[in-house]
Design brief:
Blueprint: H1 2-26, H2 35-70, E1 75-78, E2 88-91, E3 98-100, E4 103-105, E5 113-114, E6 118-120
Antiparallel strand pairs: 1-2, 1-6, 3-4, 4-5
């Protein structure tokens, strides 16, 4: 559950803001009877589906990244520390990286990388017409 709030916290706050806007609009005098119930129910359902789907996709990606890392496949992680030029780093288990929970850590690198912000590196196959 901790991962849910960590990964989806921003979206939960944004969803709450959208619900507040929905509440404000549906309580205006020009709205019909039952608009508050219908509006909040509809928007809540859509937000719950979207946030849930995002969580499922993210957790699936974390699992595939961890599995690939254990097989010593290259993993690309976003480096938010460096905002110029190369903003990503390619890491492998054989290069001294290790998995500490959901974080990739190395003695040679100053900061950890969260597995949710990483993808498995797959080389593109050449297109031969």
């Amino acid at each position: 559950m901790k991962n849910f709030f960590f990964l989806e916290g921003g979206y939960l706050i944004l969803g709450l803001f959208v619900l507040l806007i929905t509440l404000f609009v549906t309580t205006r005098p020009f709205m019909g009877k039952g608009a508050v119930k219908k509006g909040l129910a509809g928007v809540s359902l859509i937000l719950a589906f979207a946030i849930g789907a995002h969580y499922i996709v993210t957790m699936s990606r974390i699992a595939s990244v961890k599995e690939a890392f254990e097989k010593d496949e290259p993993i690309i992680c976003e480096s938010r520390l460096i905002r110029k030029g190369a903003q990503s780093i390619i890491l492998k288990k054989s290069q001294g990286w290790r998995l500490n929970g959901d974080y990739f850590v190395s003695d040679a690198y100053s900061r950890p990388f969260f597995a949710a912000r990483c993808i498995v590196y797959k080389k593109a196959k050449p297109h031969i017409p």
